[in-house]
Write a structure and sequence with these properties.
Immunoglobulin-like, alpha+beta, three-stranded antiparallel beta sheet, single chain, 138 residues
Length: 138
């Protein structure tokens, strides 16, 4: 059976390293408090991100006017007091983006959703067009 003195002999320390010290009570308390603070901060950040209102776009249709232009119709629901921007794109038959623009949108008192018609210039014949995504502006 080994004794604590034998665990710190110079031969064993050289071969395996010195035995590790356990943190004292103060160190453990500090680690627990820091962990709780970090957990509370992370929960607050997640709650803010998940509860943020979002813009909800809906494609209504598109009209191809030839190899150089397309018109895209879409509707977007913007929460009250919020401004946003939507990315509109036109795609060719290989799903390559051939036209792109961004449109600012804002809430209106008239209706929950606002219809928009946007003309895009294209680099080749588009076969579809619509909203890629919308995001809020500060």
């Amino acid at each position: 059976m080994s004794t604590p003195e034998s665990m710190t002999s110079p031969t064993l320390v050289t071969r395996y390293g010195a035995p590790k010290r356990r943190p004292d009570r103060r160190g453990r308390r500090l680690t627990i408090v820091l962990g709780l603070v970090l957990a509370i901060v992370a929960t607050g950040i997640v709650a803010l991100v998940l509860n943020r209102p979002t813009l909800t776009p809906k494609d209504l249709g598109f009209s191809v006017h030839g190899p150089s232009s397309i018109t895209v119709d879409f509707d977007v629901a913007v929460p009250s007091g919020m401004r946003g921007r939507c990315a509109i794109q036109a795609l060719d038959e290989r799903f390559t983006v051939v036209g792109y623009t961004e449109v600012d949108v804002a809430d209106t008192d008239a209706a929950p959703g606002t219809a928009h018609r946007v003309g895009l210039r294209t680099t080749s014949l588009a076969v579809s067009g619509g909203v890629d995504r919308c995001w809020s502006l500060p």
